[in-house]
């Protein structure tokens, strides 16, 4: 396994969108190795999610996991998930705002509104269909990754940029975050 280079904001691939992965390709050695590398890269940089475009591949793959994480302490846990050809449908109009960061936008956080509950459809790394409902922080992480697959970043979703802050200033001036 290897740790992949993470594309930062300004790299055109982050804005280019992605193509669905044919189901029969999922079990190929190349794709399985790539998924392993994505997981290792996410963990190396203490991310809670990573989309393929962030490591310079235009395919519709996201990985996520919320475990003990120094970048996101006190967040509910989400088991390691691989979501291929991810599609997300809001189940309610209700939204909530919370802080988000992104490995492609290092050091910055901002408050982002997200749907509280979403329906998730995807294929797992075994090619089988996954369908489930996610809410709260889990739903937030999935919406963040889904945006990456569609060429968007969390800055695009902020209602205004007044909460955009560097981590150091955030811990100093917003200690409750
Ligand atoms: Zn991100």
Task: Give your account of this protein's structure.
It is a single chain. The chain has 177 residues and is of the alpha+beta class. Helices cover 23% and strands 32% of the residues. The chain has 4 helices and 8 strands, in the order αβββββββααβα. The strands form 2 sheets. A 5-stranded antiparallel β-sheet has the order 1-2-3-6-7, with helices on both faces. Strands 4-5-8 form a 3-stranded antiparallel β-sheet. A hairpin with a 5-residue loop joins strand 6 (117-123) and strand 7. The chain is globular. The model has no long low-confidence stretch (mean pLDDT 95). The structure holds zinc ion (ZN).
Structural class: alpha+beta
Rg, Cα atoms, Å: 16 Å
The gross shape turns out to be: globular
Whole-number average pLDDT? 95
Itemize the secondary structure elements and their pairings.
Elements: H1 29-44, E1 49-51, E2 61-66, E3 78-90, E4 95-102, E5 105-115, E6 117-123, E7 129-135, H2 136-149, H3 154-157, E8 165-166, H4 167-173
Antiparallel strand pairs: 1-2, 2-3, 3-6, 4-5, 5-8, 6-7
The structure holds zinc ion (ZN).
Write a brief caption for the model.
The chain has 177 residues and is of the alpha+beta class. It is 23% helix and 32% strand.
What distinguishing features does this structure have?
3-stranded antiparallel β-sheet; 23% helix; globular; 177 residues; binds zinc ion; 5-stranded antiparallel β-sheet; alpha+beta; 4 helices
